[in-house]
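Ops channel
N.P.: pipeline sanity check, posting one input/output pair.
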């Protein structure tokens, strides 16, 4: 991209060292107008300083956007994903992955609002986030120009970043002057930590890395019992108290934190081709995932439940790889949402020292029939003798194969 091609760029801006350097670098390298966008996704940080820092770096007040997207994040992104029981590589609840399409969506909306011809992000050239951001940008605005500084500039070390910041009078927090022990990404669903002290997968995660959960060993010796209510596949109440999506997830986070729930030490396969070790804390999401599975267990037909389990890995991989706005994800979502029409009721859970245990579930749409499964005699619509024909028909091909083996002496 030629420098003169960009007139106005919307930057995904956190106010931290990296994106503050990027802000100034965009101004000096592209000589363009910069608009900053900071999303509140429940990361737990005060966002006022990001606005103040943008002003300090010469951004016009009308070009500074700080948006509270917590309810949108949970309602339109987290909840649809949890309807699918999505787990990447069988373990990861996709806390970072699911935040990127929302940030990208709002960034493109702002670009159109202010007449920007480019967008920029602070993702590195080795990670998944560059892919997630840029696939979303292109899906939403095919002709948008994208500036990815980490793939363009020569500032390849923290020392170089700090030197650039000092040269351009960018304030640097004291804790940013030393080498960061690990990097953190956080939102209302999770906190993830990667790099530095976590790079050796043979070494246990140090205690100081954890920020969202207490140690299971330090959790209360007495279990905590809660109920979670569902309507059409989405959690809507805790202990009978109706809550908005973001408020509910925040409450589950508190319960999970206090009971040491939601820690995951994972080595995953990045979309760009390398393996990465990360430590994830998803306290509320871990509780929600168990509860949703439990309510589905009595409200979903076997065929629907098994089909969901078959497509789940593909759905999770689409989100992980950045294809939230792809037609295939939307098609799968329509199928998943159809399955949730009668996923309603209440789940009772026991939270204890890092564990989430289902101790009860009920639903007005339950398919569980106690008369059918009881060992007691009763007037039921099941005749034990029918099982013989069922088994013989299912065994027909196995018996045929067995006869062939016998004939061939195998």
């Amino acid at each position: 991209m030629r420098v003169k091609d960009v007139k106005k760029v919307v930057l995904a801006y956190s106010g931290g060292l990296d994106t503050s350097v990027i802000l100034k670098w965009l101004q000096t390298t592209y000589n363009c107008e910069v608009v900053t966008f900071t999303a509140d996704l429940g990361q737990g940080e005060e966002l006022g300083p990001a606005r103040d820092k943008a002003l300090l770096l010469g951004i016009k007040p009308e070009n500074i956007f700080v948006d509270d997207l917590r309810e949108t994040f949970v309602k339109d992104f987290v909840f649809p994903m949890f309807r699918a029981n999505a787990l990447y590589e069988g373990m990861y609840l996709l806390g970072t992955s699911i935040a990127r399409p929302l940030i990208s969506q709002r960034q493109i909306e702002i670009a159109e609002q202010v007449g920007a011809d480019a967008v920029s992000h602070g993702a590195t050239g080795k990670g998944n986030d560059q892919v997630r951001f840029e696939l979303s940008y292109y899906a939403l605005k095919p002709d948008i120009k994208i500036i990815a500084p980490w793939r363009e500039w020569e500032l390849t070390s923290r020392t170089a970043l700090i030197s650039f910041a000092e040269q351009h009078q960018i304030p640097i927090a004291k804790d940013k002057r030393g080498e960061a022990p690990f990097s953190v990404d956080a939102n209302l669903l999770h906190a993830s930590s990667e790099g530095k002290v976590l790079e050796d997968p043979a070494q246990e995660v140090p205690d100081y890395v954890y920020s969202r959960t207490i140690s299971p060993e330090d959790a209360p010796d007495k279990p905590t019992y809660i109920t979670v209510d569902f309507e059409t596949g989405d959690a809507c109440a805790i202990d009978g108290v109706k809550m908005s999506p973001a408020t509910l997830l925040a409450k589950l986070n508190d319960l999970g934190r206090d009971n040491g729930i939601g820690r995951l030490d994972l080595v995953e396969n990045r979309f760009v081709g390398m393996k990465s070790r990360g430590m994830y804390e998803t306290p509320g999401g871990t509780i929600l995932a168990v509860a949703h599975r439990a309510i589905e267990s009595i409200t979903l037909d076997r065929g629907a439940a098994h089909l969901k389990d078959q497509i789940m890995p593909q759905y999770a991989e689409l989100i992980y790889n950045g294809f939230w706005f792809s037609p295939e994800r939307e098609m799968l979502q329509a199928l998943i949402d159809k399955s949730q029409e009668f996923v309603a009721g209440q789940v009772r859970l026991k939270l204890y020292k890092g564990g989430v245990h289902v101790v009860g579930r009920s639903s007005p749409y339950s398919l569980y029939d106690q008369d059918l499964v009881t060992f007691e005699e009763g007037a039921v619509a099941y005749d034990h003798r029918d099982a013989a024909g069922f088994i013989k028909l299912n065994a027909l091909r196995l018996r045929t194969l067995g006869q062939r083996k016998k004939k061939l002496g195998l």
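N.P.: looks fine end to end. The chain has twelve helices and 14 strands.
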